[in-house]
Write a structure and sequence with these properties.
This protein is 84% helix and 0% strand. With 76 residues, the protein is mostly helical. It comes from Paenibacillus oceani.
């Protein structure tokens, strides 16, 4: 499971670089922060249960944030 967090770090880095190339600086910074967090967590060698709980927390937080942003902040 620790390896999967490093894989998530790789993909968030790729998305962050593409956002930076597309001149979306805020999105790029968000994904660079996620990259750093995933890579650090990937090298902490926590238990499987801890990794799964962290991932579920990340998913809940990101889905709530996306839902809030798309419902309240986006213009039609």
């Amino acid at each position: 499971m620790a390896r999967m967090f490093r894989v998530l770090g790789f993909w968030t880095l790729a998305i962050g670089l593409m956002a930076l190339a597309g001149d979306m600086k805020e999105m790029a910074l968000l994904f660079f922060f996620q990259t750093a967090a995933f890579v650090v967590l990937g090298y902490m060698n926590l238990s499987e249960r801890t990794y799964i709980m962290i991932f579920w927390g990340y998913m809940v937080l990101s889905f709530l944030g996306f839902t809030y942003w798309s419902f309240f902040e986006m213009e039609l």
